[in-house]
Design a protein that fits this description.
The chain has 198 residues and is mainly alpha-helical. The chain has a single domain (34-196), classed as Up-down Bundle (Growth Hormone, Chain: A), CATH 1.20.1250.10. Helix content is 64%, strand content 0%. It is built from six helices and no strands. The protein has helices at residues 8-26, 35-56, 63-66, 92-119, 126-146, 164-196. The longest helix is centred in the C-terminal third of the chain and has 33 residues, at 164-196. 21% of the residues are buried.
Length: 198
């Protein structure tokens, strides 16, 4: 084909023909992400956040304090019923629901501890506030994974604390329980991540 280059129009046409392949290569391509990959990425993020929670769950207490044989009247703290050998048979949605329910319970307990400190005109320990923020964040991530609207949880009836010793002992009990629960949750999420890649 013979092109006339004696006009600006012909030059513009030539430039357009040369640049068309470049434009077509530069156009962004939509990449379809599979639901399986999205789920795996969500579980990975949950696992990372749960490990962070596990590292801060001790709060303001030392290792020796958390190992104290403290006596308390709590019947509202989450209990872990599964054993290590049960990890291989974990179901995704059931496990995520269990973690969500347990963390919601801990949110109530930590909000209660903050209120106890405030009632005594004392600021809550910064570690306690950090844990509360982490619980809220993980709860939001869990909700994205589960998808269904969350049920309206009923706050537990928690005892009135009348002295500093009761606050101290109760705080240790709550942090110690969160340590165990976050450790179990991180382990469960690790198994679910491995299963999602198979």
């Amino acid at each position: 084909m013979k092109l006339l280059l004696g006009s600006h129009v012909s030059v513009d046409v030539c430039l357009l023909l040369v640049l068309l392949p470049v434009f077509s290569l530069a156009r962004p391509h939509h990449v379809n992400r599979s639901p399986r990959r999205d789920r795996g990425s969500g579980l990975s993020n949950l696992y990372v956040q749960m490990k962070k929670l596990q590292r801060i769950a001790h709060g303001p207490f030392s290792h020796d304090e958390l190992n104290m044989d403290v006596r308390h009247n709590f019947t509202t703290l989450p209990h872990i019923t599964s054993r290590a050998q049960d990890m291989g048979s974990l179901q995704l949605n059931t496990t995520l629901r269990s973690i969500q329910t347990g963390l919601q319970s801990f949110r109530f307990h930590f909000e209660w501890l903050q209120q106890v400190w405030q009632n005594r005109s004392m600021p809550p320990p910064p570690e306690t506030l950090q844990i509360s923020r982490s619980l809220r964040h993980i709860g939001q991530l869990l909700q994205k994974q589960i998808g269904d609207p969350p049920a309206s949880p009923v706050p537990p009836e928690l005892p009135a604390l009348t002295n500093h010793w009761d606050i101290y002992v109760s705080s240790i009990a709550v942090h110690k329980s969160l340590q165990s629960f976050s450790h179990w949750s991180a382990t469960a999420l690790h198994f679910l991540m491995r299963s999602s890649t198979l």
